[in-house]
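Structure (tokenized):
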């Protein structure tokens, strides 16, 4: 290549560079000195297009000139001119893939690792449908399997009753997300009541911290009984085995997420659930009726590693017309509220604290006719692309007579 041709080519390159510098400086300041100006140019599309082309073009031109000579450099200039004419399509592609326009996974934007999906373990809330806790992002696109189990120890003593047993609350199910908004789940739940296996451990723990046993040490370990007394005289009215409360059912849940990818607004979802009982608690309800529930979930990412969640729920119970003839009288509705906070230690570990409130559903029995307050403290661990393990302990606060004395929870979604 002659010296005259080299001079012409160099002059052409300098003209191209000068053109780009002039346009970029005009639209969004000194682009080469401050890369943040490129993001600013996203707000003014023409400047952004030219600035982005300028940055990548200069680097690629210099590489071509050094490695392959002026012939390939001229070829690149021709291709570049075609791209400038179709720059709208080019910028759209770059905005989707370049790091200057990052996009977090929209499904998980306000989700993080989610909540601990623990149903209420309160005494009265465990007889029938217990509203599942669902927030935006819980049901992912595609299939997922759900396995949850909670082991609760119940000790509650008042003038009118004595409850001493343990309960295993198990949920097995499959969820399917049609997309990021619409999903459904089918779940089988079972509650089994048996004699206390944690009595000795809990009693020793109370002794260690000098906590009042509330009469626990006056009875043998391993009992599974429900006892009613006359509050005036203390006389025994009746005593039943705890397994009379065993119950199970099939749940169908449908969820719709309205907002999941906003950085300024919380994620919002609305879900409904229907439960058909396979087995009913004999002491509570001898008729099989479909219970219904509806919930509103919220989720919000506030900082890089901090999330908050909330749920408001309402449950409607059927088949309660003759409940006043039974030993325990139940209300036909209930309200539920959950507030949760999560802090992610890493991409695969999150610490959670939750407060679950449930209005009373039992009438006429002092202590059990009060609202329940349950606190969950736990951790969630990501074990794979879709597998998450949740481990938690549960404690009752404020009202001690109608919620679990202590419980442990284990959950797996995969």
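Design, position by position:
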């Amino acid at each position: 290549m002659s010296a005259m041709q080299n001079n012409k080519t160099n002059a052409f390159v300098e003209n191209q560079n000068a053109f780009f510098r002039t346009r970029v400086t005009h639209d969004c300041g000194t682009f080469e000195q401050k890369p943040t100006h490129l993001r600013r140019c996203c707000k003014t599309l023409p400047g952004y297009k030219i600035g982005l082309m300028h940055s990548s073009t200069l680097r690629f031109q210099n590489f071509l000139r050094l490695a392959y000579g002026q012939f390939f450099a001229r070829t690149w200039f021709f291709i570049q001119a075609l791209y400038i004419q179709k720059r709208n399509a080019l910028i759209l592609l770059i905005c989707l893939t370049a790091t200057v326009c990052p996009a977090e996974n929209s499904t998980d934007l306000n989700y993080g690792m989610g909540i601990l999906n623990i149903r209420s373990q309160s005494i009265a809330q465990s007889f029938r449908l217990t509203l599942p806790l669902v927030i935006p992002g819980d049901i992912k696109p595609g299939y997922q399997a759900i396995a949850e189990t909670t082991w609760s120890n119940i000790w509650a003593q008042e003038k009118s009753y004595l409850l001493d047993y343990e309960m295993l609350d198990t949920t097995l199910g499959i969820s399917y997300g049609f997309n990021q908004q619409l999903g459904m789940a089918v779940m089988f739940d079972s509650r089994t009541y048996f004699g206390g296996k944690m009595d000795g451990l809990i009693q020793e723990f109370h002794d260690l911290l000098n906590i009042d046993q509330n009469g626990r040490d006056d009875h043998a370990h391993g009992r599974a009984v429900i006892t009613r007394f006359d509050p005036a005289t203390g006389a025994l009215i009746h005593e039943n085995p705890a397994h009379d409360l065993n119950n199970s059912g099939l749940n169908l849940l449908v969820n719709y997420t309205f907002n999941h990818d906003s950085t300024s607004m919380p994620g919002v979802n609305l879900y409904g659930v229907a439960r058909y009982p396979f087995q009913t608690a004999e002491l509570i309800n001898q008729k099989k009726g479909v219970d219904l529930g509806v919930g509103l979930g919220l989720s919000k990412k506030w900082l890089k590693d901090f999330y908050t969640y909330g749920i408001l729920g309402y449950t409607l119970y059927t088949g309660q017309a003759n409940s006043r003839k039974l030993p325990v009288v139940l209300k036909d509705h209930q309200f539920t509220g959950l507030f949760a906070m999560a802090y992610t230690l890493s991409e695969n570990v999150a610490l959670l604290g939750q407060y679950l409130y449930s209005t009373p559903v039992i009438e006429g029995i002092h202590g059990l006719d009060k609202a329940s307050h349950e606190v969950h403290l736990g951790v969630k661990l990501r074990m794979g692309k879709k597998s998450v393990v949740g481990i938690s302990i549960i404690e009752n606060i404020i009202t001690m007579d109608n919620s679990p004395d202590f419980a442990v929870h284990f959950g797996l979604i995969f």
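Reviewer-requested clarification: The mean pLDDT is 76. The longest strand covers residues 161-177.
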